[in-house]
Amino acid sequence: MSRQTVRVTFQPEGRAVFVLAGTTLVEAAGQAGIVLSQPCGGEGTCGKCRVEVLENAPEPTDADRRHLSPSELAAGWRLACQLSVGADLVVSVPQETRFFEQMILSEGESCQYPFQPNLRKQLIDVPPASIEDQRSDLDRLKAAIGNGALRADLSLIRALPGLLRSGPQPLTAVLEGDEIQWLEPGDTTGGLWGIAFDIGTTSVVGTLMDLTDGSSRCVASRTNPQVHFGDDVVTRIGFAERTPDGLDRLRKRLLTGLNEIIEEVCDTAQIEPEAVYEVVAVGNTTMSHIFLGIDPSPIAHAPYVAVCRGAVDLKAVEAGLEVNGNANLHVLPNIAGFVGSDTVAVVLASGMALRDEPTLAIDIGTNGEVVVGNRRRLIACSCAAGPAFEGARIRHGMRATDGAVSKVVLNAGIEVGVIGGGRAAGICGSGLVDAVAELLSAGVIDETGRIADPQSAAHLPDRLRRAILEFEGQPAVVLVEAADSRTGQPVLLTQKDVREVQLAKAAVHAGIEVVCRELGLDPREVPRVLMAGGFGTFIRRSQAQRIGLLPAVPTDRIESIGNAAAAGAKVVLACTKCRAEAERISRETEYVELAARPDFQTAYMEAMTFPPRA
Amino acid sequence: MSRQTVRVTFQPEGRAVFVLAGTTLVEAAGQAGIVLSQPCGGEGTCGKCRVEVLENAPEPTDADRRHLSPSELAAGWRLACQLSVGADLVVSVPQETRFFEQMILSEGESCQYPFQPNLRKQLIDVPPASIEDQRSDLDRLKAAIGNGALRADLSLIRALPGLLRSGPQPLTAVLEGDEIQWLEPGDTTGGLWGIAFDIGTTSVVGTLMDLTDGSSRCVASRTNPQVHFGDDVVTRIGFAERTPDGLDRLRKRLLTGLNEIIEEVCDTAQIEPEAVYEVVAVGNTTMSHIFLGIDPSPIAHAPYVAVCRGAVDLKAVEAGLEVNGNANLHVLPNIAGFVGSDTVAVVLASGMALRDEPTLAIDIGTNGEVVVGNRRRLIACSCAAGPAFEGARIRHGMRATDGAVSKVVLNAGIEVGVIGGGRAAGICGSGLVDAVAELLSAGVIDETGRIADPQSAAHLPDRLRRAILEFEGQPAVVLVEAADSRTGQPVLLTQKDVREVQLAKAAVHAGIEVVCRELGLDPREVPRVLMAGGFGTFIRRSQAQRIGLLPAVPTDRIESIGNAAAAGAKVVLACTKCRAEAERISRETEYVELAARPDFQTAYMEAMTFPPRA
Question: Domain spans of chain B?
Answer without folding.
Answer: 5-97, 119-185, 193-331
